[in-house]
Amino acid sequence: MEFKKFLPGFKIMSYYGTVRERKEKRHGWKGQNAFHVCITSYNLILTDQHIFRRMPWVYMILDEAHNIKNFKSQRWQDLFTFRPHRRLLLTGTPLQNNLMELWALMHFLNPVDAVGYRADFADWFSKPMDRALEDGRERDDENQERVTKLHTMLRPYLLRRMKADVEKELPAKYEHLVYCKLSKRQRFLYDEFMARSETKEILSSGNFLSVVNCLMQLRKVCNHPDLFEVRPIVTSFAMRESAVADFEDKELLIRRHLLASSPFDGIHPAFSQITSHEHLSFNASTARRLLDGSSHLPGAKDLPGEPPPRDFRTIDGFRRWSDHQKSEAKYGRWRHITYLNRQRCAVRPLYGSEILTTLASIATSRQRLFGQTSSPHPHYMETTSMLLGAVKSYRQRTDSVHPLINTFAFATPPVVARDISSLILRAVEQPVAELAADPNFDILHLPAVKLQIAFPDRSLLQYDCGKLQQLDALLKERKAGGHRALIFTQMTKVLDILEIFLNFHGYRYLRLDGSTKIEDRQKITQRFNMDTRILCFISSSRSGGVGINLTGADTVIFYDSDFNPSMDRQCEDRAHRIGQIRDVHIYRFISKHTVEESMLRKANQKRSLDDMVIRDGDFDWRKMLVSDIQMEQALDQVEDAEDAQAARYAAAEIYQDTRGEQQEFDESGPLVARQAGASAEEGAAEEDEGEEEDDGLTGLERYVLRMVEEDWSYFSEWRFK
User: Fold this and answer.
1) Measured between alpha carbons, how far is 283 from 715 in angstroms, rounded to an integer?
2) Residue 169 to residue 391: CA distance in whole angstroms
3) pLDDT digit string (tens) for 27-66?
4) CATH architecture assigned to 173-186+459-605
5) 2-8, Cβ contacts within 8 angstroms, sequence gap of 24 or more
6) Given pLDDT bands bounded at 50, 70 and 90, which one contains residue 222?
7) At residue 392, does pLDDT exceed 90?
8) With left for phi above 0 and alpha for psi between -120 and 50, is residue 663 left, alpha or beta?
9) Does domain 2-160 have CATH number 3.40.50.150?
10) For residues 83 and 147, what is the distance between their CA atoms, to the nearest angstrom?
């Protein structure tokens, strides 16, 4: 698109696609004027590098040149083997972590004269400046002198263009540090992890990978505790079989044989203390008297009498005393038997035989009257419509207390046994058991299910994390002001949590991560920029930080910070770029008293290194041009008139040599050439005749100004003082 806008006459070949498609595009590409510019990706040029090396390339331009910052990488080594006439690197972050990355870029441009050998560069600049940053001595005289030397070495190879140079009305950018307190759960997990003996051993061992792993675990706790330890879904421990089932074959079968055949007979006194005060019917009383045969038991009425004296001196006296002891023992045994017999006869059943007989006769007569129904559900639980208004059903009572049940039914039992209900209902007729097991019949089914499983409350997602609490307050404030936000994070799982958080609050959002297809990225970004109803755009800083225009947002939120501050700076530029009409506010979340504060200090050290080496280097070609002009002015004042005139002639001759190349793009020839040629031919005569206005500038200065005005119209407002 940029080539079509600024160079519409160029032939552009976009080199991409499958192996077959790329082969078709290469057909005839060595012909004259087949194309002027070939655009491809890093991966494709490395895949087809054996083909690309055969072409006599004039210029190799690498965009996002920080991709070759590591000279040990295979990408750097393969691209370095290309031999074009010129090389150009484009990047917004030439210095990301250390000076050796900058050396890799400079060495790629000019391996002979750029910045020397790697070991020498490390000894001269990289190692001393790293130590100075760590010690806080970056501004002392020695390091300032070292930085000045580095600027001198880099200035011939480095040009820096600021956004403010291109867009005069670019809005301001404000950065805010938002310190977040850890929640109670976060602080517990953080301290617990640091207190582990395993963690202390890893930190003391100094193993790099192990220490980094500990660091990542701590960052997970800071971002959200669910990343470190998920809040569990509470369920009961369901035993496969209950303790009763182990004795089923023995106890239950024996009881069936010992008890009466009818399941509704009396209850054993050892398992029930139920007593009834209701009067028995005449038939039941008669049956009870017949069962109570205590008066007919032998020996129950024969009392032992008065005990004889204990006489152990005579045989007759000892015999009488021994017989009396035996009769007392016999009487005691019969008395206990009589007591047990009366206790058994005194037990009353829950449902008497008369009631059971009556109900059985009603059911039999109903079947004879209406016939056997084909419905699988018997009518045991039906009620008459006459009593519905007078007596509430269980369903009606449940509905009336539903708020209480729904609020307070939350205690999940620790252990449950699955087959207890089947053991209890085994003595009940099968149709009734099936009806009772139906969820539609069980009016307390929903509360029962709620007691079986307990999900974490949705609001705990926010209140378990200090950053989400701050994010909630910030989004409410920005939404009320009509602002829209970009939220960046490094972890894909944090994006999942942010999605749940935004859905919980009802915010509209779009998501972009590494799994998003390249062809879908443009659609997503265009939709966000066009649809103002979308409040948030959540993205991974690794996937959403390059090549995406998101000027529809004026708020950038870094949920977590990158080790490399240049990655965060690229994410900032997605919103603060040409086309933005509002001030951009950047919020960076940092958890208090955690490892994130140390990461921030390290990132600030890297920013300081970038500020010293790149930002303070004045790598601006306008300033370089001004310096050259000032030098020419100074030389013009101190040199002889003949030498100054010769310098003006030399400048005109240089331009005459380059005019032929420019005419390929402008057949009419630039106005500067005619003016420069005229000034070269007439020379001093122009000054004597006063044909040109005397503005205090030398001929070289006028030449530069004319060239700028002719070829670059957007520089026409520049003035050199």
Assistant:
1) 122
2) 80
3) 888 877 788 888 888 888 888 888 888 888 888 888 877 7
4) 3-Layer(aba) Sandwich (3.40)
5) 3/37
6) very high
7) no
8) alpha
9) no
10) 32
